[in-house]
Each structure stands twice: as structure tokens, then as C-alpha cells.
Specification:
Number of strands: 9
Shape: globular
Number of helices: 9
Distance between the termini: 39 Å
Strand content: 15-25%
Length: 230
């Protein structure tokens, strides 16, 4: 552990913090020369292998992510025009699919109109592992492409439980005001807590941590979070 990391870690006491204290501490402990992302990591008491315990959805961060999101849209005809008018970075159908199939991945979010999903579905092996596959559950398979692009630009983020039962979402940048980071993180906590599967027995939220890209993790009071949304 380097000197800067040791100094940052020394600022964090070995205890549980409320969300507002935690985001403030993350800002104080950040030491990198670049504007670090602030991430929320939640360990859930679910079995992601079970379809009825898959926790997945989207939430709009009130203050955005602080990142420029490159949006790709698979669409034809009127919907292609709508996507371009709404400010999509890349729009197209067959040629664009071939480009992606060939390994081109210079985008952060992908949207597709339902009529093209038969063809887009064939890109599953390329898009799936990167979390870029359009999905109706996350609002990225839709004919309302203009609305979907607008929501992504406003700060819509996707959350999904991974194999180890972890949900990790970026809630902003260290440069954000403390209140904005708090409100963004609060929005994700609320969404994930409300997404508790009916089949989940026992404790749903096992642990919660906030950290910056390079900084130490700050542990949240999971019991208090559970009480807030129970």
C-alpha cells in the first residue's frame, strides 16, 4: 500500500457510516490526480443463478454520472431519423451490426427497436459480456428511441446483480458537490431495495460500501438502510 493510500485509509474509521457521512468521507479521502468516479457496491442475499432472484433495472441519477455517454441505436426508417434528431452518437442497422460483430465497441449504451431484435440478438456473444445488450427490462428495447436517449443523457444507469451477488454502480464523480453525490447514491439504494425479489428469504442487503476509484471503501450501515426501506 502506497503512502497516499495509507493516508487516505487512515481517514476512515473501522465503523459503519450513514450515507451522507460516507460520501463526504469519500470526497475527503480521494487523492488521485484525475477526477475519480464514486461507486456504490451492494452485496445482496440473493442467488443470481435463479431467474426469480435476478435483481436488475434502471434508475435515473438526479445529477447524472458526470461522464459523457456515447449512445448507439439500432434502428431503420423513421426511428433512425428520430434517433439522429435526439442526438444519438451512432445510428444504423445492418452495416452497424456488422461493424459491432467485427469487434468495434466505441460506445457506452446500446438501444434497439423491437423489430430489429431478431438480428441484434445474434450479437449477444459480443454485447452480452460487456453489459451492452439491449433489453426490454432496462428500457433499451423500445420504439420510443428519442425518450430512451433523453433518459440516458439525463443520467439513467443500469444496475444488475453479478455472479457473486454484488451490484456495483457509479453514482458520480469526486468533483460533485456532497449533496449531489448523496442524492445520486440515495436514488440507487432506493431502486435496488425496492427491487427485492419476493422469493428472497432472509437478509436482502448483506453489506454496502461507497468508494472512489482509487480510494478506500467506506462501509454503510446496512441495517439502517434495510429499516429505511422495509
Amino acid at each position: 500500500m502506497g503512502k497516499k493510500m495509507k493516508a487516505a485509509a487512515a481517514k476512515v474509521e473501522p465503523r459503519f457510516y450513514n450515507l451522507k457521512e460516507a460520501v463526504g468521507l469519500v470526497k475527503q479521502a480521494a487523492y488521485a490526480k484525475f477526477d475519480e468516479s464514486v461507486d456504490l457496491a451492494l452485496r445482496l442475499g440473493v442467488d443470481p443463478k435463479r431467474a426469480d432472484q435476478m435483481v436488475r433495472g434502471t434508475s435515473v441519477l438526479p445529477h447524472g454520472t458526470g461522464k459523457k455517454v456515447r449512445v448507439l441505436v439500432f434502428a431503420k426508417g423513421e426511428k433512425e431519423q428520430e434517433a439522429r434528431a435526439a442526438g444519438a452518437d451512432y445510428v444504423g442497422a445492418d452495416e452497424l451490426m456488422e461493424k459491432v460483430k467485427g469487434g468495434w465497441m466505441d460506445f457506452d449504451q446500446a438501444i434497439a427497436t423491437p423489430d430489429l431484435m431478431g438480428a441484434v440478438g445474434k450479437l449477444g456473444k459480443v454485447l452480452g459480456p460487456r453489459g451492452l445488450m439491449p433489453n426490454p427490462k432496462t428500457g433499451t428495447v423500445t420504439f420510443e428511441v428519442g425518450k430512451a436517449i433523453a433518459e440516458i443523457r439525463k443520467g439513467r444507469v443500469e444496475y444488475k446483480v453479478e455472479k457473486a451477488g454484488i451490484v456495483q454502480v457509479s453514482v458520480g464523480k469526486v468533483s460533485f458537490e456532497e449533496q449531489r453525490l448523496y442524492e445520486n447514491a440515495h436514488a440507487i439504494l432506493e431502486a435496488v431495495m425496492k427491487a427485492k425479489p419476493a422469493s428472497c428469504k432472509g437478509r436482502y442487503l448483506k453489506s454496502a460500501t461507497v468508494s472512489s476509484t482509487m480510494g478506500p471503501g467506506v462501509h454503510l450501515d446496512a441495517v439502517a438502510i434495510i429499516k429505511q426501506w422495509s
